[in-house]
UniProtKB/TrEMBL annotation:
<feature type="signal peptide">
    <location>
        <begin position="1"/>
        <end position="19"/>
    </location>
</feature>
<dbReference type="Pfam" id="PF18962">
    <property type="entry name" value="Por_Secre_tail"/>
</dbReference>
<feature type="domain" description="Secretion system C-terminal sorting">
    <location>
        <begin position="353"/>
        <end position="420"/>
    </location>
</feature>
<protein>
    <recommendedName>
        <fullName>Secretion system C-terminal sorting domain-containing protein</fullName>
    </recommendedName>
</protein>
<dbReference type="InterPro" id="IPR026444">
    <property type="entry name" value="Secre_tail"/>
</dbReference>
<keyword id="KW-0732">Signal</keyword>
Length: 422
């Protein structure tokens, strides 16, 4: 067996980090001395991170008060990187001290859905989730008028994460029943300080993508935007991760399908002077896939780190955009006029069934040359070029989540998720 060497397939991101406060739990570390609370049972250090076992209810992982505090200027957002091995956990919430100088106690934030449950117990995938630490109580604790302070220094001494199911209801199962959770890293950062210039939604999630006059949700290998139907210019985009505009003069969007009546798409961003700029007016195919390339070179406002950008839908008739689903599989910022066909292209191939037991059947625009299947650690589990009827025997694979790398005779490559469930 060998490790996959195409790291871009597993990460599919350009990821530059300027995080201002990091709790990294790798290699058996536990900065902040995080502990179980609520219906949590235990927190154990490991090479992968903090292994969290829990009971039914609302389990929590809390930082030990005063063990390794941060200040609120470190960041307005908390990034949580974890492996969710549980088939039930599907939402989470952050919390922190009420540090407004008057109130005491804990500020609990609302539960945020979108945490990906494991397809089968123990088969979790590492992902990073984001929530905003937004509250009038998010202030440094000076110790003067609250009971939260232990060191008499103006800082935030307490925070944590709690978990529930995808509906925001208390868990009915335990980690013994459904699988545990491994907490790998917690980062306190400001919007725009982490740069991310490539999104492949067969691997990435919909974290911090939002819609205006529409909603964004995570699909199997896409993010899905649905307009509300009452606007001529609904839009979706990113307001947390930054992009180095000076080094990336093109933006590319791969739309797998478009069930709305939108036949045009533009790119919009907020520049350094807080002015909204809109460029491009590209054709968007209705009822089909589209690869959109937008040239931003020569746009003087497109410079520095941009952390608030959107794609705007419209139609030539200037009527309201209907509420059909628009599925996006990839967004890339680079300096190339077009998105290379040798990049991961999710529009050229598909396979079924998924989940699968013994076989998958692959269809493609061109003749399929080879198929390789990797587990989520990057280990090659199966490789074949013997594709009778474009069918692949997967009966030897264990239950779990895999990445299927498909290559055609023109060296086009696609990577998609496969769930094996027997």
């Amino acid at each position: 067996m060998k490790k996959i060497t195409l790291l871009a397939i597993l990460s599919a991101i350009s990821f530059t980090t300027y995080a201002q406060k990091i709790y990294d739990f790798a290699a058996g570390a536990n900065p902040g001395a995080w502990v179980q609370a609520g219906s949590g049972i235990s927190v154990t250090t490991s090479a992968d991170g903090l292994v969290f076992e829990y009971g039914a209810g609302t389990p929590r992982i809390d930082i030990t008060r005063g063990a390794d505090p941060f200040v609120v200027s470190d960041g307005t957002h908390m990034l949580v990187t974890l492996i969710n091995n549980s088939t039930e956990i599907g939402s989470f919430s952050g919390f922190f001290d009420k540090n407004n100088g008057v109130d005491t106690g804990t500020q609990f934030l609302g539960f945020q859905t979108g945490v990906t449950p494991a397809a089968v117990k123990g088969a979790g995938v590492e992902k990073t989730y984001i929530f905003q630490l937004s509250s009038g109580n998010y202030n440094n604790d000076s110790g003067a008028l609250t009971f939260n302070d232990t060191d008499n220094i103006s800082n935030m001494e307490y925070c944590g994460i709690r978990f529930r199911n995808a509906s925001g209801a208390a868990l009915t199962g335990t980690s013994a029943d459904d699988g545990n959770l491994i907490l790998k890293k917690v980062q306190i950062v400001n919007a725009g300080t982490i740069l991310k210039e490539s999104y492949d939604f067969s691997i990435d999630n919909s974290a911090s993508f939002t819609g205006v006059d529409g909603t964004v949700s995570g699909g199997t290998s896409t993010i899905d935007f649905v307009a509300e139907g009452d606007s001529t210019t609904p839009k979706f985009g990113q307001s947390f991760y930054g992009v180095d505009a000076s080094s990336n003069t093109y933006v590319h969007l791969v739309v797998d399908s478009n069930e709305s009546n939108a036949d045009q798409i533009k790119f919009q961003f907020v520049d350094a002077s807080s002015t909204t700029k809109t460029y491009g007016n590209k054709t968007l195919n209705i009822g089909a896939s589209t690869v959109v390339d937008i040239n931003l070179s020569g746009k003087t406002e497109w410079t520095g780190n941009i952390s608030d950008w959107n794609f705007v839908l419209s139609n030539v008739a200037e009527t309201n955009v209907t509420s059909g689903v628009v599925k996006i599989s990839k967004i890339v910022f680079d300096s190339n006029p077009t998105l290379s066909s040798k990049n991961i292209d999710n529009t050229l191939f598909s396979f079924s069934p998924n989940p699968a037991k013994n076989f998958i059947n692959i269809t493609g625009v061109n003749k399929i040359n080879s198929v390789a299947i990797y587990d989520m650690t990057g280990r090659l589990s199966l490789e074949t070029s013997n594709l009778g009827n474009n069918s692949v025997d997967i009966s030897g694979l264990n239950n779990g989540l895999y990445l299927v790398k498909i290559k055609d005779v023109n060296n086009n490559i696609s990577v998609k998720k496969l769930i094996v469930s027997k």
